[in-house]
Amino acid sequence: MAPSPIDLLLKPVRTLLQKEYTGGIVLFISVLLALFWANSPWAASYHALWETRFSVGFAGHRLEEPLHVWINDGLMAVFFFVIGLELKREFMAGELSTVKKATLPMMAALGGMLVPALIYLAFNAGKASEAGWGIPMATDIAFALGILSLSGKHIPASVKVFLSALAVADDLGAILVIAFFYTAHIAVTPLMIAFALLLLLGLANAAGIRNPLVYLLTGIAIWLCFLASGVHATIAGVLLAFTIPARTKINELEFASCLKTYTLQFERAMPQRGTLTTPEQHHTIEQIKKLALAAETPLQKIEHKLHGLVTFGIMPLFALANAGIVLNGNLFTALENPVSMGVLFGLFAGKLCGILLFTWIMIRFRLSSLPVGANWRHITGVSLLAGVGFTMSLFVADLAFDHETLIGQAKTAILIASALAGVSGAFFLRRLS
């Protein structure tokens, strides 16, 4: 089939959007834009924009919050929903689906969370800033995988799989930390209603209900319940993801057999002149559409649909709203405080040491083995890239602190540590060629 003019025009754009590193580039541009805007003569408009209040609802029942809250509590719930879908897929048929597969990346992720937290506490124990220990624990999967893709084609595929599994396990750890340690108060009644709705969706899944609208509408109600309960509303996205059906209605052999039958029916239908199909052909096409729906899982379909929205919409918008740090005077002087030092050393040094240490323990005691084709230099490069903790670290910083000064100190260190980790990791891996 000859491509149309619009297909030819959009082909380069589609090719670029499908590259693994494109999401990281868009995220990086958003960070630079936020920093420029917040430190420009138009800085007042930057801060005023995110404080603009929006309300949703109807008379007597309205939810009114500043724009940055809608982004951090609302849109980021969609981000966490996609993370939940990825986790469920990985647990079912991915790199975390068996004990043998999951052991090494999960233990490496554990080391990459514990050591940074301990380093942070070494700088901040007993201080008002102690609550920020969760900030340097997270890895930004979009940035890390994007930088790995730009590091050269000589990197074994198994190294990318290892980093992906490590980052997914890291996200799971960050979600648990947010749920258990960054919840200020809990209102029991809304939380019980939320879990009742989640149970209802679990039963709907078991009954074979596959319509995404059912899960979407109920998911909004669950999000509102979590918002009212005091547990961070983004956790609703993760729990909702685990209720999404992940089974096909027909197996591969049935799909292939039926598709052959419909193909023959389509070929035998009498064609008519012009570009229109015959009624018989149109009926066959509709049957093939239904067959395709039965052969795909709602989980993978929804994840695929939301991937672009999250990568090129929600994450860049979150970065734009949260990375606008005012840089006054000497940047290195601004780091001379316990919060910045804890985050900087936690992300850059703690991630490297923690992942390498726990990986070495697993290999040394023959509990696991290195990824196929990978060596310790690859693991070192990946450990450096894991120090890019941008998105999740910024998110936790806003949860950990109420004081703007502490938040600013943490965010400054996150940006510097992530830049150092990304540049050093990419340089190290490129040297391996």
Amount of helix: over 70%
Figure out the total of helices.
18
Kindly provide the radius of gyration, computed on alpha-carbon positions and rounded to a whole number of angstroms. Answer: 24 Å
Distance between the termini: 41 Å
The main β sheet shows up as: 2 strands, antiparallel
CATH architecture tag of one domain: Up-down Bundle
Summarize the structure.
With 433 residues, the chain is mainly alpha-helical.
Characterization of the model:
- The protein has 433 residues and is mainly α.
- Among the domains are: 42-53 and 65-73 and 112-177 and 307-344 and 366-433, Na+/H+ antiporter like fold (Up-down Bundle); 252-295.
- It is 72% helix and 3% strand.
- The protein has 18 helices and 2 strands.
- It has helices at 5-17, 22-38, 43-51, 67-93, 99-124, 141-150, 157-181, 188-207, 212-229, 234-241, 252-268, 279-295, 298-322, 331-334, 338-364, 376-385, 390-400, 404-431, and strands at residues 53-58, 61-66.
- It has a two-stranded antiparallel sheet.
- A hairpin with a 2-residue loop joins strand 1 (53-58) and strand 2.
- Helix 9 runs antiparallel to helix 10.
- The chain is globular.
- The chain starts with a helix and ends with a helix.
Write the layout of secondary structure elements.
Elements: H1 5-17, H2 22-38, H3 43-51, E1 53-58, E2 61-66, H4 67-93, H5 99-124, H6 141-150, H7 157-181, H8 188-207, H9 212-229, H10 234-241, H11 252-268, H12 279-295, H13 298-322, H14 331-334, H15 338-364, H16 376-385, H17 390-400, H18 404-431
Antiparallel strand pairs: 1-2
Helix pairs in contact: 2-6, 2-13, 4-7, 4-10, 4-13, 5-7, 5-15, 6-7, 6-18, 8-9, 9-10, 11-12, 15-16, 15-18, 16-18, 17-18
